Amino acid sequence: MDFGGAAAGPAPDFMSWYMDIPVVSRMYLTGAFLATAACSVDIVTPYTLYFNWDLIFQHGQVWRLVTSYLFFGVFSIDFLFHMYFLSRYSRLLEEGDFRGRTANFVYMLLFGVMAMTLLAKYTDSPFLGSALTFMMSYVWGRRNPDTRMSFLGFFTFHAPYLPWVMLGFSLLLGNYVMNDLIGIAAGHVYYFAEYVYPVLAEVRGYPLKRIMEPPMVLHWLCGTAHPEEQVRFH
């Protein structure tokens, strides 16, 4: 399956490749690998990681808000498939639209987690990592409308159709697609709020110009606080 661009050159060694991944994408990829490794050697079980609204909000098992986005299944071809898409589209976003804007990238992920957590309450979705991957691929595709991609060499399409092609492929394989739909929905809401609404607000003179500006504390934590941003209000 080919959802990429130009052919790669000589393969770098693993540590060079790993350290070249931007910090937030690298942390997420590492967390996903460690969660799967911990389950593989029976340090923890998936039953302690999955999303369950009642266990989180009535029994205080708040770690499930994080672990349900980290576990992608046991080591398998399907796991490698998920890791490829996670590392690729998270990295493309962090190095592209969010270059130098780490706080905004983290804020996008936090928004996605919050939105998908609320939606997951009403669906049978125990693990939500693939939904977050779909959200990132949706946002990346909408931000790169002229990028051409191919699917299995049979047909080509433009990047905005990527999540829908992936959704169709999941349907053909008989996979559960509710996570994919949740990710697409969250990605669409974020794209509108971050990229469409500010233009509408400027044209129509709305007093609220931006609704996806990270709080200053997040800028400080991510090292992206600048004097000119400290006077930017919602």
UniProtKB/TrEMBL annotation:
Membrane topology: Multi-pass membrane protein
Keyword Transmembrane: yes
One Pfam short name: DER1
Gene Ontology terms: cellular component: endoplasmic reticulum membrane
Compartments (UniProt record): Endoplasmic reticulum membrane
SUPFAM superfamilies per UniProt: Rhomboid-like
Superkingdom of origin: Eukaryota
Segments traversing the membrane: 27-50, 62-81, 102-119, 153-175, 181-200
One record GO biological process: cellular response to stress
InterPro entries, sorted: DER1, Rhomboid-like_sf
Keywords carried by this UniProt record: Endoplasmic reticulum, Membrane, Transmembrane, Transmembrane helix
Protein's job: May be involved in the degradation of misfolded endoplasmic reticulum (ER) luminal proteins.
Record family assignment: Belongs to the derlin family.
Protein's recorded name: Derlin
Source organism: Grammatophora oceanica
